């Protein structure tokens, strides 16, 4: 199987600069069967990812493959660049908006993914979470505000072998590639869904977690321990369908938002 056949050419937002067309594809909605039935068609759209109730259904299956994936990532020396994630969504991204993440300026322990309208320059962001489509290759569905990672020393064979592993083990519908900004390498994280259709990552050690949670991503930056990001569902069991605030909030407002939705954590 050729490299071109596996990943469909340079990965947008990772191996080449993003374009407005890439952003449009990341947001567009398509009709295709459920991920659970492993019938993937156009999966390059965030709004077509399965909702977060998929997580409990697939996490144990994924855990069985983590040792082999760790060996693969270690072999190619990419443990400080990439991890794996369960493609899912907590809400619908409105038309003309995209999910873009960055470190919250006042505190490096906070990573906020928020809605940004499509007036930003695509060259100012890179891909953060990617899903594999047999017809299109790897496609980003979430983004990171910052330059593309330096992957000049990454053997392109890595993307081929990783994709082959997912295809061979029928994992392409439940596992994707994830770029790791440096501030997210060293800690287990907790993902909160805020009321303004934003996602907030907080160091797990800084919270008092008593709620049920489920793992949404893994990385192998530690030589022994597999670092995880866990998701805490909204306490009402649902997420707001439309955003009411698109601004990047300062730390005090973020804490208030967490306290409002997760009063037993902070």
Proportion of residues in β-strands:
15-25%
Low-pLDDT residue spans: 1-5, 29-43, 236-252, 261-266
Over all CA atoms, what is the radius of gyration?
A: 17 Å
Distance between the termini: 50 Å
Helix content: 10-25%
Number of strands: 10
Query: Structural class per helix/strand content?
Result: alpha+beta
Give the strand order, joined by hyphens, for the main sheet.
1-6-4-5-2-3-8-7-10-9
Q: What's the average pLDDT? A: 77
What overall geometry do the principal axes of the alpha carbons give?
globular
Q: Could you state the order of secondary-structure elements as H and E?
A: HHHHEEEEEHEEEEEH
Number of helices: 6
Largest sheet: 10 strands, mixed, barrel
Any overview of this molecule?
The chain is α+β, with helices and mostly antiparallel strands. It has a domain at 3-186. It is built from 6 helices and 10 strands; from the N terminus they run H-H-H-H-E-E-E-E-E-H-E-E-E-E-E-H. The chain has helices at 3-7, 20-27, 55-63, 66-75, 157-168, 251-261, and strands spanning 82-85, 97-103, 110-117, 125-133, 137-145, 176-179, 189-194, 198-203, 214-219, 227-232. The chain has a 10-stranded mixed beta barrel, surrounded by 4 helices. Strand 2 (97-103) and strand 3 form a beta hairpin. The longest helix has 12 residues, at 157-168. Residues 1-5, 29-43, 236-252 and 261-266 have low confidence and may be disordered.
């Amino acid at each position: 199987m050729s490299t071109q056949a596996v990943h469909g050419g340079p990965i947008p937002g990772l191996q080449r600069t993003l374009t407005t067309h890439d952003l449009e594809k990341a947001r567009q909605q398509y009709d295709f069967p459920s991920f659970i039935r492993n019938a993937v068609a156009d999966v390059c759209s965030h709004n077509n990812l399965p909702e977060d109730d998929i997580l409990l259904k697939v996490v144990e299956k994924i855990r069985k493959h983590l040792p082999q994936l760790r060996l693969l990532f270690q072999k190619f020396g990419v443990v400080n660049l990439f991890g794996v994630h369960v493609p899912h969504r907590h809400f619908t991204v409105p038309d003309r908006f995209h999910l873009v993440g960055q470190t919250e300026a006042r505190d490096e322990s906070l990573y906020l993914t928020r809605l940004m309208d499509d007036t930003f320059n695509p060259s100012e962001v890179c891909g953060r979470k990617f899903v594999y489509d047999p017809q299109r290759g790897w496609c980003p569905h979430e983004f990171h505000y910052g330059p593309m990672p330096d992957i000049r020393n990454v053997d392109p064979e890595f993307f081929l072998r990783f994709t082959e592993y997912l295809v061979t083990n029928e994992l392409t519908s439940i596992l994707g590639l994830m770029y790791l900004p440096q501030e997210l390498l060293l800690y287990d994280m907790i993902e909160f869904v805020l009321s303004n259709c934003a996602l907030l990552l907080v160091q797990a050690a800084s919270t008092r977690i008593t709620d049920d949670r489920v793992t949404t991503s893994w990385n192998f930056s530690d030589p022994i321990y597999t670092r995880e990001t866990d998701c805490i569902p909204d306490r009402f069991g649902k997420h707001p369908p439309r955003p009411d605030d698109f601004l990047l909030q300062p730390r005090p407002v973020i804490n208030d938002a967490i306290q409002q939705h997760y009063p037993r954590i902070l």
